[in-house]
Amino acid sequence: MNTIIASTWQEMLRRKMLLITLILTALFLAVFWFIADTVGADSTAGGDLLMQYARRSAILSLGFFFGGFVVAFLAIFSSFSVISGEAEQGVLQSVLTRPIPRWKWYVGRWIGYVSLIGAYALILFVAILLITNVHAGMTRDYGDIAVSLLLFLAAVPVLVSASMVGSTLFSGIGNGVFMTMLYGAGWLGGMVEKVRGALPVEPDVEATLSRIGALLSLIMPADGLNRRMQYVLTQGAGETIPFLTGGNPPSNAFVWYAGVFAIFAFGLGLWLFKRKDF
């Protein structure tokens, strides 16, 4: 299994996908530094404490709005053709003829993607927090920071598990489209919640929007985990940018649901892979 994990890392490096992501991330962090410096220009010079808190929340919201997207698309486009693509090229057939159980190959691939993308997500999380701390200060509640980090990283196994399920069912391109639309549905659910919280609407309309947003978020919970992470990190002060952090944050029950979703998707993908003919 260690060989499969190492080959997954080598494949991502060979395709230069991770390298391109790191270069673009460095460009984003440079722009984010400038934005944080502009937004937080007066936050360390005394003044209204509530305003300092709001500026910090705004900077974090902007940073993790991008961070959630880049981690999601790195997870999706790294693994969307892991099974169907290699089967079409004949690579998978040659690997599975060796005395290696299918489950070891599948689990090794899963661990390889989750570990490498998780390491990238960790670096991105720390970078956003450090930049925010320089320009607007940061909470010293390390418990909240630890919980936020776990929530940010939790989106990776959710996305990889779902993507590998899709790869057993669809072609590489088909699964890429499927996963993009699936993540888009979850993101739209979050946006519906934010619109509901930001705009004055009638109670019956608000209830309908709430149900629609909750249903879409359940289809793909990755964006909901990101919204919950921002809420924990800012303690609900994200209302300063309604269309980024508005609406009610996902509950603890939603976080548990996301964990069950990842486990179920992982088990379903493994079961389908073991039964699939190549």
Q: What amount of the residues lies in strands?
A: under 5%
Order of SSEs, N→C?
A: HHHHHHHHHHHH
**Span from first to last CA?**
21 Å
Number of helices: 12
Helix vs. strand class: mainly alpha
Helix content: over 70%
What summary fits the major beta sheet?
none
Indicate the overall shape: globular
Number of domains: 1
Unreliable segments of 5+ consecutive residues: 237-243
Query: How large, in whole angstroms, is the Cα Rg?
Result: 20 Å
Average per-residue pLDDT, rounded, comes to 83
β-strand number: 0
Give a structural overview:
The protein is 82% helix and 0% strand. With 278 residues, it is mostly helical. The chain has one domain. Helix 6 (102-136) runs antiparallel to helix 7 (142-169). The longest helix has 35 residues, at 102-136. It is globular, with a radius of gyration of 20 Å. The protein starts with a helix and ends with a helix. Mean pLDDT is 83; it is low at 237-243.
List the helices and strands and how they pair.
Blueprint: H1 2-14, H2 17-39, H3 49-79, H4 84-89, H5 91-96, H6 102-136, H7 142-169, H8 172-198, H9 203-219, H10 222-234, H11 242-245, H12 252-275
Helix pairs in contact: 1-6, 2-3, 2-6, 3-6, 3-7, 3-8, 3-10, 6-7, 7-8, 7-10, 7-12, 8-9, 8-10
